Amino acid sequence: MKLPAPIALLTALFALLAGAPLGAAPIAWKEGVHYTVADTANRESPPPGKVLITEVFSYGCPACNAFEPTMQKLRASMPAATTQFQLVPAGFIPAEDWPMFQRAFLTAQALKISDKTHDAMYKAVWSTGELATMDKVTQRLKSPQPTIEDAARWYAKQTGVKAEDFIAMAKSFGIETQVKRADDYLRTYKVLSTPTLVINGRYVTDVRSAGGYDQLIDLVRYLATK
User: Fold this and answer.
1) Can you point out the beta strands (E) in the chain?
2) In Å, what is the CA distance from 52 to each residue of 1, 132, 133, 186?
3) What is the pLDDT of residue 6?
4) What Å distances lie between residue 55 and 13, 68, 86, 201, CA to CA?
5) Least CB-packed of 46, 62, 198, 220 within 10 Å?
6) Percent helix, strand, coil in the chain (nearest 5)?
7) Which residue segment(s) compose the domain that 42 sits in?
8) Residue 93 within a domain
9) What is the pLDDT of residues 85-132, one digit of tens each?
10) What is the pTM of this model?
11) Mean pLDDT across the stretch 198-226?
C-alpha cells in the first residue's frame, strides 16, 4: 500500500532519526541486555547541556584497535556542539603492558599531545610494530615488553616533546593521581573488558551487548537521548 505523501515523509524522517533503515523494525533496546545502568554512588555527571561519551580503552587491547574506526564513525555521527568525548585508559592486564600504555596516555594527555598521537599510537602497537607487545612471527608476547622510556622516545619522534620531559611527567605525582582516578573509574562502572562505553555517566555498554559495531552506534545515539 502506498502511503500518502505527508505520511510517507514523516515515516522516512522517523527512520532516519532512529538510525534504522527504512522497512526495518527498530531494535527494542533493553536494560540488562543491551546496556546496564551504573549505580548512583560516585557516578560521573555530564557537563551542562552536553552528552558525555566515555571510551574505556587500552592501546594494548586488540579489540580496541579493531574498534577505533567505529569510534571515529560514532564521533562523526554525533553533533559536535552538544557532545563531549573522553578517553579513560585501562591498566588491568599487566602481562600485556596495559599499565605502561595507561601511564603513557595520561602523560600525553597532561602534555596536551594525546589528540595528535592517539591514532598513531594504535599503529605503533599493531601496525608498524614500534611499540608492539606481540611478536608477529611467534604470535607470543614479547619479553621484555615496551617500557615507558620506549614510549617517551616514540612520543619525542612524533611531537618533539623531549623524552626526558615525558619521562619526568610520567613519573610525577600528578600522573600517579591520574592513574588512580582511571582505576577508580573502572571500579565505579564495573568495567571488566575493553572497549567499553559509558554514556552520560549513567549507561554502560559494549559491542557484544549491543550486538555489533553498527548496532552499538545506534544504541549510543538512543541512550544519548534518554
Assistant:
1) 36-37, 51-57, 83-89, 196-199, 203-205
2) 42, 31, 31, 16
3) 36
4) 30, 10, 6, 11
5) 62
6) 50, 10, 40
7) 38-224
8) yes
9) 999 999 999 999 999 999 999 999 999 999 999 999 999 999 999 999
10) 0.87
11) 96
Q: Which residue do the cell numbers 574505556 mark? A: 56
Residue 53 one-letter amino acid = I
pLDDT at 43: 86
| Rg (the chain; Cα; Å) | 20
Q: What CATH number has the domain bearing residue 193?
A: 3.40.30.10
For range 215-223, the mean pLDDT: 97
d(CA 53, CA 50): 10
Residue range 142-159: mean pLDDT, rounded = 97
Q: Does 99 fall in a domain?
A: yes
Whether residue 24 contacts residue 172, with contact meaning beta carbons closer than 8 Å, is answered with: no
Residue 5 lies in a domain: no
| DSSP annotation of 192 | -
Judge contact between 170 and 178, C-beta under 8 A: no
Whether 20 shows a pLDDT value over 50: the answer reads no
18 in any annotated domain: no
Parallel, antiparallel or unpaired: strands 203-205 and 36-37: antiparallel
Model confidence at 62, pLDDT cuts 50, 70, 90, reads very high
Residue 145 Cα distances to 1, 50, 56, 134, 149, angstroms:
64, 39, 22, 9, 11
* Count of domains forming the chain: 1
